[in-house]
TrEMBL record:
Superkingdom, natural source: Bacteria
InterPro entries, alphabetized: CLCR (IPR051266), Uncharacterised_YfbK_N (IPR022156), VWF_A (IPR002035), vWFA_dom_sf (IPR036465), YfbK_C (IPR021908)
Species of provenance: Cellvibrio mixtus
Name of this protein: VWFA domain-containing protein
Membrane spanning residue stretches: 101-120
UniProt lineage: Bacteria, Pseudomonadati, Pseudomonadota, Gammaproteobacteria, Cellvibrionales
Amino acid sequence: MNKKPMNDSDMNQHDLQALLQQQPPAPDADVKARHMAAAMAAFNTQHAAEHNNTEKKSNRFQGLLQRLRLTRDTNHHGTHSMNNATNNTGFDNRPFWQKPVIVSGIAASSLAVVAGLTFMQQLMIDPSLSDVTATVFSKNLPLNTPHTSEHDAVEEVVITGAQQVLAEEQAKKMARLESAQLARSKQAYAAAPAAKMMADAQPMMLSVPAPAYAVQDSLAQSAPQFRDRFSDVDENGVIAVSANPVSTFSIDVDTASYSFVRRMLNNGQLPPKDAVRSEELINYFDYAYTPPKDRTTPFATYTNVMDSPWTKGNKLIHIGIQGYQLAASEIPRSNLVFLLDVSGSMDEPGKLPLVKQSMSLLLDTLKPDDTIAIAVYAGAAGTVLEPTKVSEKQKILAALNNLQAGGSTAGAEGIALAYQLAEANFNKDGVNRIILATDGDFNVGQTDDDALQDFVERKREKGIYLSVLGFGQGNYQDALMQTLAQNGNGTAAYIDTLSEAQKVLVTEATSLLFPIAQDVKIQVEFNPNTVKEYRLIGYETRALKQEDFNNDKVDAGEIGAGQRVTAIYEITPVGAESGLLEESRYQKESTPVTGKNSEYAFLRLRYKLPGDPKSQLIEKPITANHNSTSPGHQREVNFATAVAGFAQLLRGSPYAGDFTYDKVIELARANKGMDDYGYRTEFIQLVRKAKIAQ
């Protein structure tokens, strides 16, 4: 077959293909320099034209890169038209090393190499950026926005990808923070430097200057807020008997502080000192005081004097009060309202899910004809269940199980609704009580503690009481919980585990729900002939004025069925060298009183029976040789002393003397007793954890 003769066009096409398949020679430096100069001149011209148009400032590199991109359009490389460099066939007849497509490719490649070397140098300077970038590209993370240049593409891949990597790392870190509860308290984090807070929340930071700030701001906003709030209370100090011989306080049977301290120690952290209320640690335990025989006198009182284990020469005075335990036939009917916080802050495993389980446990302790209503609050309050007989347990459980967390926290509105439900089903012969379960974060509506206190006090006078169950950490508002419980004639407990819910709502349910006395006050008058100084361990938030003791209008603590209260004074006897106060130069010598020289102090206990507006009085002297003759009672006194010493060590008390955690363990182990529920064994383990906690 005869071949068709090649024309000029075919020859040019054939030559072009052959040339393109050859290895290009090294670029001519002069040619490269001319094209780079032309490109920069064009860029400068375009930049000057665009300077007055602010909307085009972001594209200042576009002209340069457009002239360096691979293209056959020679108009982008000068002012010559296509006809100046091509023949009438449309093909460029210039040598390949002068063709724009080759020169543009070389120039663009050179810039890419320079940019790559610069970027690699940055990675060598900042290894953390290298790690982030490697992770970004290994994950093949997509870009969020389009780009117009290689520079924009590289920066966007690094920044966008890094933000996604950091978000993933932050999510993992947040999970670890929740499970381990890494923050000691709001105060500790408020005092920490901002850089340290950021390092704790996210160890990997991006070092690209401008975008890094945005990433850091994002991390700061997403970091957990450690907002646990406790009343700032100073520890009771030493008081001279000559200056003030009378000490008066309201009893306290709350246990919230102990449970919160336990949670923190189990997480390897020491609690903030304001979270440690000594009296609540002491009263957490069930001391084997002998109960009274009948309810006509609802209390049995016990006193004991022993040597102080932390200050040689001082003495400890123990005051124990045991309440009457109601028989099953004596337990009145209950009209209860569960007021449950379902706001967004409760959406954690240790909060709303534990609330549901806890309320389910309480149902098992109630009588079939008792009534339960359920009110909830988040951004607003609502009734989930109208007053329903406990015999319809499945209906109550279904209402509980359907609850979900979300929204803000209109706590005051929820409290008002709960009281409305309690009033609508009020039982004048029974117990009318609201049980509030929350982390205490009221942030919508009336959030002032004083206003809430006034509201609760008014409702208390109508016979509706309020008890508070606290849940969760990191957002726990203990100060508000204490205010509500103390002024609502109720108790405050903290539920950190299902086991604690079992203790509070099942084992000690009668003491939580059924009061046997209210407005219970203690007054101790010290004998100046035998006692030089004294201090009360704990009860700082329960102090009363001396004149409040006989004033029946002044509110005080409530004691439930079978409940017990322990108070401990440390005294410096006259003649002891362990006192902390200087002798007064002008204080007159005390005149001995016949028949009373053996007394350290005189105890007075005032209380009201439920529904009785007039108080009753119990009095008892405390003698210097008032030691228990019962080994069992002395064991209880010794264990309470170990707990009191532990509380002082946790608070960093200046009155703890030479007491140590090891001495606490030694004293507690020797006086642990039967320990049916294991609470005392657990206490000893907590002391060991406190030794190594941070």
